[in-house]
Amino acid sequence: MAKLFQITETKIDSTTHLVPKVKLLSADYVQEVVDFGSGSIIRLRDNNNVSKVTERVVTEDKASVLALMDGTQGSVKALSLLVLNDGGGDVDSTVKLIPVDYVLEVETDVLNASNSIVTLINISSSKGKKYTVQETVANILTASNATSGGGGDLVSTNNLSDVANAATSLTNLGGEPSFTKNTGFNKDFGTTAGTVLEGDKNDAIVLNTAKSTNATHTGEVTGSGSLTVDPTAISNKASVTAAAGMEVLVNDAGTLKKADASDFLPNTSLYVGLSDSATLTGGTEQSLLPATGQGSLSVPANAFKVGDSFHLVMAGEIPVGNKLDDFTFKVYQDGVVLGEITVKLEDITVAGESFWEGEVDFTIRTIGVGGTVCSNIDWTFNKNLTKDFKGSRSVTVTTIDTTTASALTVTGQVVGGNGSELVTKLMTLHKVITGV
Fold first, then answer.
1. pTM of full prediction above 0.85
2. How big is the chain by its Cα radius of gyration, in Å?
3. What is the pLDDT of residues 165-181, one digit of tens each?
4. Which of 67, 292, 352, 380 is the most buried (most CB within 10 A)?
5. For residues 142 and 420, what is the distance between their CA atoms, to the nearest angstrom?
6. pLDDT, tens digit, for every residue of 345-382?
7. Domain ranges of the chain
């Protein structure tokens, strides 16, 4: 049976608490427990008259009270508590040992929630019956049902006489087991006979000059003094195809640094068209991109670097042309026009006779919300009759937002309404320089 158990009391005898009180009761003084509504009534023997009982209405039902009382009992016989007020006029803060068997109940001090009021059994009126102690109710509950290390009473080391049968085992007193002390246990330091470093005072160990010979390393790192990386550090490794994200070691004026393998890779195609575009007719602006392709024309947010440079080549056929029609070639990034060319077409009546080519170079100058890109556009086609070339070129600096995801788009538009048609046959996009 637990020595002390915790309940929530709503009423004691005829006095109803405005706010339920959490209390610790001594199981040794419980006379009986009966059901009362959703809770129960605990009848506890009176503090001053064991023939009397006090009735305490608690929120716990009878089964819960039984479980609390049947909780594990520790071996602690007494509690070491700092008594702030013994109820008899003594207000000196003194550590006292209070036998658990003499505790009737414990409740929180209404004046200070960190303190508790401990009510004792059979204490003479001259010494008082209620102690104000500097300890919480929860800690007193834990301590009262704890198991002491030596099976005896918990005591203060400066007052062993307060509790009978005080446990003085090494565990309780914080001691260490005894052992045989050999001759070196309490020798003085020195090099003379009978001291710890007896022997040659010039010994390297005494003079703290002793050192081990440098070990010779073999394998991928060789040498004993200056270490050298052996070629096997590379030749022993499995071969892989370099890719972006891999790191390589470089020598920068005597300082080893790392670099991304992509910096040493040849520039590869970012996108290639694998089919024709839809035939461009009429007077509306239409896409000149191939219907299918491999790679991507999209750029993630913040992926552009200063100095990134690209080369776009597009080519196709003009199956039908009229010299009264104008054709406009436009390149967009993030919905912003990087550049455009407008050229007047020629009379073309036979398919397979006239072909066009557009080349676009653009470089990222600055990045950010107000980033800039410089573009060069060259668009030409060969005439049907004279076979010479006709076209135009433009260079433009445009502001774009590199902090958002974007995509490259190419469009065309025939204006004039005389039946001219164009179609894309080839498209490649390369990154020619990687910026920093």
1. no
2. 48
3. 444 555 555 666 676 66
4. 380
5. 95
6. 999 988 888 999 999 999 999 999 999 999 999 999 99
7. 4-144, 269-433
Give the residue, 3 or 283, on which the prediction is more confident: 283
* Whole-angstrom distance, CA of residue 337 vs CA of residue 116: 80
Angstrom distance (rounded) from CA 70 to CA 66:
6
Show the tokens assigned to 7.
Answer: 């309940």
423 phi, psi to nearest 5 deg: -145, 140
Alpha carbon distance 305, 215 (integer Å): 48
pLDDT over threshold 90, residue 324: yes
d(CA 96, CA 73): 22
| Residue 280 to residue 286: CA distance in whole angstroms | 7
Residue the block writes with tokens 């490794």: 237
Q: Which pair of structure tokens corresponds to residue 211?
A: 């050192």
Name residues whose C-beta falls within 8 Å of residue 252's C-beta, 6 or more positions apart in sequence. Answer: none
Contact between 120 and 101 (Cβ < 8 Å):
no
pLDDT attached to residue 399: 96
Quick one: which of 145, 144, 1, 141 has its CA closest to 71?
A: 1
Measured CA angle at 416 (ends 413, 422), to 5 deg: 40
Gap between the Cα atoms of 108 and 47, Å rounded = 18
Confidence of residue 184 (pLDDT cuts 50, 70, 90): low
Annotate 387-408 with DSSP letters as a single string: --EEEEEEEEEEEE-TTS-EEE
- SS3 state of residue 267: coil
Spatial distance between the Cα atoms of 22 and 138, rounded to a whole number of angstroms: 10
